[in-house]
């Protein structure tokens, strides 16, 4: 591309690009108009391929004739706006159509020439690509809007607020002497966890909305393995005995996503710990996924699977609820204080006990607290503590499955060996790290 630019005169090259990009935009408008003609019998655009090409060429000519003062270019722009306004008024009065997309695209096409001449090539290419994509995706946006909940944009606004507004303005001053606890560190942990949960929530809500139970377990595990397994256990209450293997496999795959989720969190908060722990967490992810696959392979289609309406009612809650953020922040502060006190008064053995106790609740704030204080704790101790917390949480999960499934012993038999195998693998991994290092 650089050689071609050097061979051709600069003016010729910019003219060819202007005409070509304008033609591409015009062709997209032609396609859009033909579709409208077929569906409604109404001409929705004042022009298509040739018209938009000439608009781009006109903008190029008027710009290069007076690039300093831009009098001709501004005059041409005013004339364009006047003509487009007349077209808009006529279309509104005659066809009762008030869309302005075509007018805005025409004005963007008119602006292509100065952009191509004065800006890097990637910038003008990006503009053209976005114009073409947005033109073609009108029906996609309509379908997406129909699927959106009433509060979906509010949820997005909350995430933008907590990550882009609140986080940057928080002070980074230590709150409690002897700890690394600051308002910024507390909220940073909340934002990162909420971001991962929100991404998996969107995948579950819009990409895999009608997916099977196994995929729901996989995606939901990134959101929250405990919440996902609880939902699956509730659904399994009405399942036939032949269909329980499907739910068992889905629960195990949700638990396997816990290892992947913490692998991501460890990479974000501590690269040193990540380099130490990633082979073990990848192994645990692959091993538990294989167990889930074995269970799911034996599953039989269940006639009593929940309906779409039931799935809608049991859908995952908004991960950006204010009370959820407050609970996470509170747990994070609690574990920071308790961890500091334990290390100062009991030592590493006390940290191991605390790791096991943390598994009763959400272990995410405990793990992030360890990662943010990893420079003050031996790296191997941090890794072992994380694994012990996962081990404890997996044990607690077995009791969750038993109680939330209505104490179905037939389901317990299917998941017990799977979770015991995962617990054994976590324990062996932790013991290996303790003995080796």
List the helices and strands and how they pair.
Elements lengths: L1 H6 L2 H31 L8 H17 L5 H25 L5 H10 L1 H7 L2 H16 L1 H10 L4 H18 L13 H25 L5 H23 L8 H26 L1 H27 L10 H6 L8 H24 L2 H11 L5 H9 L6 H26 L4 H28 L1
Helix pairs in contact: 2-3, 2-6, 2-7, 3-4, 9-10, 10-11, 10-15, 11-12, 11-18, 12-13, 12-17, 12-19, 13-18, 13-19, 15-16, 15-17, 16-18, 17-18, 18-19
Kindly describe this structure.
This protein has 437 residues and is an all-alpha fold. It has helices at 2-7, 10-40, 49-65, 71-95, 101-110, 112-118, 121-136, 138-147, 152-169, 183-207, 213-235, 244-269, 271-297, 308-313, 322-345, 348-358, 364-372, 379-404, 409-436. Helix 12 (244-269) runs antiparallel to helix 13 (271-297) and helix 13 packs antiparallel against helix 19 (409-436).
Which characteristics define this entry?
437 residues, mainly alpha, 19 helices, elongated
Briefly characterize the structure:
The chain is mostly helical and 437 residues long. 79% of the residues lie in helices and 0% in strands. Helix 11 packs across helix 12, helix 15 (322-345) packs across helix 17 and helix 16 (348-358) packs parallel to helix 18 (379-404).
């Amino acid at each position: 591309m650089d050689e071609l630019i050097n061979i051709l005169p600069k003016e010729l090259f910019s003219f060819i690009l202007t005409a070509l990009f304008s033609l591409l935009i015009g062709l997209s408008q032609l396609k859009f108009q033909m579709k409208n003609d077929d569906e409604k019998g109404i001409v929705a655009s004042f022009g298509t391929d040739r018209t938009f090409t000439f608009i781009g060429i006109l903008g190029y000519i008027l710009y290069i004739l007076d690039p300093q003062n831009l009098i001709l270019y501004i005059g041409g722009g005013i004339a364009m706006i006047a003509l487009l306004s007349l077209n808009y008024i006529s279309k509104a009065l005659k066809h009762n159509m008030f869309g302005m997309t075509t007018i805005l695209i025409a004005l963007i096409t008119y602006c292509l020439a100065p952009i191509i001449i004065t800006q890097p090539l990637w910038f003008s290419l990006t503009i053209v690509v976005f114009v073409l994509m947005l033109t073609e995706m009108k029906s996609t946006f309509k379908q997406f809007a129909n699927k959106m909940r009433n509060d979906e944009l509010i949820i997005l606004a909350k995430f933008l607020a907590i990550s882009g507004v609140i986080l940057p303005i928080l002070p980074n001053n230590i709150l409690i002497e002897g700890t690394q606890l600051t308002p910024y560190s507390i909220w940073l942990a909340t934002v990162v966890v909420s971001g991962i949960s929100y991404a998996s929530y969107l995948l579950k809500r819009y990409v895999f909305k009608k997916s099977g139970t196994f995929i729901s377990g996989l995606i939901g595990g990134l959101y929250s393995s405990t919440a996902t397994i609880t939902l699956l256990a509730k659904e399994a209450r009405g399942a036939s005995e032949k269909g329980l293997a499907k739910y068992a496999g889905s629960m195990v795959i949700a638990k396997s996503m816990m290892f992947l989720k913490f692998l991501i969190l460890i990479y974000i908060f501590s690269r040193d710990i990540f380099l130490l722990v990633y082979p073990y967490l990848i192994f645990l992810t692959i091993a538990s996924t294989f167990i889930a696959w074995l269970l799911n392979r034996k599953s039989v289609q269940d006639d009593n699977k929940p309906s779409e309406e039931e799935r809608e009612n049991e859908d995952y809650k908004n991960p950006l609820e204010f009370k959820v953020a407050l609970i996470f922040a509170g747990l994070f502060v609690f574990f920071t204080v308790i961890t500091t006190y334990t290390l100062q008064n009991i030592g590493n053995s006390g940290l191991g006990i605390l790791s096991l106790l943390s598994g009763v609740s959400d272990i995410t704030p405990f793990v992030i607290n360890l990662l943010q204080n990893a420079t003050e704790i031996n790296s191997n101790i941090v890794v072992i503590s994380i694994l012990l917390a996962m081990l404890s949480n997996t044990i607690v999960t077995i009791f969750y499955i038993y109680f939330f499934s209505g104490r179905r012993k037939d389901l317990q038999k299917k998941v017990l060996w799977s979770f015991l195998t995962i617990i054994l693998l976590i324990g062996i991994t932790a013991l290996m790290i303790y003995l080796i290092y």
